[in-house]
Automatic annotation (TrEMBL):
Stretches assigned to the LRRNT domain: 20-54
Organism: Betta splendens
UniProt xrefs under Pfam families: LRR_1 (PF00560), LRR_8 (PF13855)
Biological-process GO terms, alphabetical: anterior/posterior pattern specification; convergent extension involved in axis elongation; dorsal/ventral axis specification; negative regulation of canonical Wnt signaling pathway; positive regulation of non-canonical Wnt signaling pathway
Protein name (record): Trophoblast glycoprotein a
A GO cellular component annotation in the UniProt record: plasma membrane
Keywords: Leucine-rich repeat, Membrane, Repeat, Signal, Transmembrane, Transmembrane helix
Record Gene3D superfamilies: Ribonuclease Inhibitor
Leader peptide range in chain numbering: 1-19
């Protein structure tokens, strides 16, 4: 009885240290961890103990999160909200998490991301996981706005893999100057447009594997070259075309083996005759062969121009010969046309003078009478 009374007194003094665990959750004060996993929750539970540093709310039915969802959780450093079917993240949702360093929103259905959804005080956030989280391309545009508006200059890792990005919005990462690792694998990327990788001044790792890159245009190569020299690249699993038109990419790849960590394993997907062949091996023979083909194409084009010139010259000669044979008739028609034009002009001139001189106008009127 005495121990129980002492415990109650200690709980009253410590308050949050003896806080109860939310229903359907598991709490460990020693590990500073709360887990609410697969409990069919419809919202973030209230009453989460203040000692919590690691908060796992995963595998539930939560559709929306906002600023009221995480009040009083100043000590949370790692927050996992994966696989909850979250579709909307309001502005300043995580602003109250003053110590937040890692945020996992993977495997959700984010359709609406408000402009300041990822604003965190003191720029504490270091890792953001949005793998398999974006519902459609509209949410990609929302994300671009949110990343520009939110204070994420201290973010170190960003995972956007397994999303249907197709094309990266311009300057998507322009405010993430401290980013070190960027995961863009299996994101259906077909190209790297201008300014798509702008602002990544400290990047150390970029994963572009398992996308839809058949080659990299001059614009895309400039984007990769704009990254810091120490940035390691991964390009494996893309359906590269080892055909004419990819000479610039082939030359760039041969000169970038130190940066492209999986360069030796890159394989051709097109044409069928070169499928699974090494891109580096194919690249060595690509440029000379394409030059010969281009030279043959130029010769064929020049031959076509010569033939066209001969045909046009012959048509011109025929036209001049026809004109010569009909020179008398043409001359007569020209004279007739000239006389007709002169008569019309003289009639207009006479009428103009009659209208401008009242006396001629009276003579004309009396003559008509």
């Amino acid at each position: 009885m005495r121990d129980w009374t002492l415990r109650l007194v200690l709980c009253a003094l410590l308050g949050a240290a003896c806080a109860t665990c939310p229903p359907r959750c598991e709490c460990s004060e020693a590990a500073h961890t709360v887990k609410c996993v697969g409990k069919d929750l419809r919202s973030v539970p209230s009453g989460i103990p203040g000692y919590t540093r690691n908060l796992f709310i995963t595998g539930n039915q939560i559709s929306r999160i906002g600023p009221e969802s995480f009040k009083g959780l100043d000590n949370v450093t790692n927050l996992s909200l994966s696989n909850n079917r979250i579709s909307e993240v309001e502005s300043h949702t995580f602003s109250g998490l003053r110590s937040l360093r890692s945020l996992d929103l993977s495997n959700n259905q984010l359709a609406v991301i408000h402009p300041e959804a990822f604003s965190v005080q003191n720029q504490t956030l270091r890792e953001l996981n949005l793998s398999r989280a974006l519902y459609n391309y509209s949410s990609v545009s929302d994300l671009a706005t949110s990343l520009r508006w939110s204070s994420l200059g201290s973010l170190r890792g960003l995972d956007l893999s397994h999303n249907s990005l197709v094309l990266l919005p311009p300057r998507l990462f322009s405010r993430l100057s401290g980013l070190r690792r960027l995961q863009l694998s299996n994101a259906s990327l077909a190209a790297l447009p201008n300014s798509s990788l702008a602002g990544l001044e400290r990047l150390e790792e970029l994963d572009l594997s398992l996308n839809a890159l058949r080659t990299l245009s001059a614009e895309g190569l400039r984007e990769l070259d704009s990254l810091p020299p120490q940035a390691a690249l991964r390009l494996g699993g893309n359906p590269f075309a080892c055909a004419c038109g990819a000479e610039a990419f082939a030359a760039w790849l041969n000169g970038s083996r130190g940066r492209v960590r999986d360069a030796e394993g890159l394989a051709c997907a097109f044409p069928a005759a070169m499928r699974n062949a090494s891109v580096l091996a194919a690249a060595g023979a690509l440029t000379p062969g394409c030059r010969r083909r281009a030279a043959g194409a130029d010769l064929a084009l020049q031959t076509s121009y010569v033939f066209l010139g001969v045909v046009l010259g012959f048509v011109g000669l025929v036209f001049l010969f026809v004109l010569y044979l009909n020179r008398k008739g043409i001359k007569k028609r020209v004279y007739d046309l000239r006389d007709a034009c002169r008569e019309v002009w003289e009639g207009y001139h006479y009428r103009f003078e009659a209208d401008s001189d009242p006396r001629l106008s009276q003579v004309s009127t009396s003559a008509d009478a």
